[in-house]
Design brief:
This protein has about 140 residues and is mostly helical. The protein has 2 domains: about 45 residues, no CATH class; about 90 residues, no CATH class. It is built from 5 helices and 4 strands, in the order αββααββαα. Helix 2 packs across helix 4. It is elongated and about 75 Å long. It starts with a helix and ends with a helix. About 10% of the residues are buried.
Length: about 140
């Protein structure tokens, strides 16, 4: 009789474990991965790249890289390139909010528009000055090796 009870307990545990895994699959975003040279595919948890930048700072960084032609999705169509960048950022990055926690980027079109606008020129210059300062510090560290 003890063997049957043990079997029931173990069986119930695995049923619960399977239900929890199914719930996790619904909650945690997954990405379809295909093995090279193999026809089998499987889902793996998809993690976004975290940033220490705020949403507008992250938009500034990518907008500058895009606008200068350093990074691009479509060099011939600026509208398509811009929308591809916005989609890429939303799907792959999180930003640092005012409380210091990471937030998902649902949309970043407003911040991209701010980067383009003349009224935000001062903010973009300030961002560039800070970014250049970080890069200069890195250069000094490399030179002192």
């Amino acid at each position: 009789m003890k063997r049957a009870k043990t079997y029931t307990v173990v069986d119930n545990y695995f049923k619960l474990d399977m239900r929890l895994k199914k719930l996790e699959d619904l909650v945690i975003p997954n990405e379809l991965v295909t093995n090279q040279g193999d026809v089998s595919s499987f889902l793996v948890p998809f993690k976004k790249c975290r940033s220490s930048y705020s949403k507008i700072e992250l938009a500034n960084l990518f907008y500058i890289l895009m606008d200068e032609g350093i990074l691009y999705f479509d060099s011939n169509d600026t509208k398509k390139n811009r929308s591809s960048f916005q989609k890429f950022m939303s799907e792959n990055f999180t930003y640092n909010d005012n409380e210091g926690s990471q937030k998902i980027i649902s949309t970043i079109s407003r911040q991209f528009s701010e980067c383009k606008g003349y009224t935000y020129k001062v903010k973009q210059i300030r961002f560039l000055d800070e970014f250049i300062s970080v890069m200069q510090e890195r250069k000094k560290r490399l030179e002192s090796w």
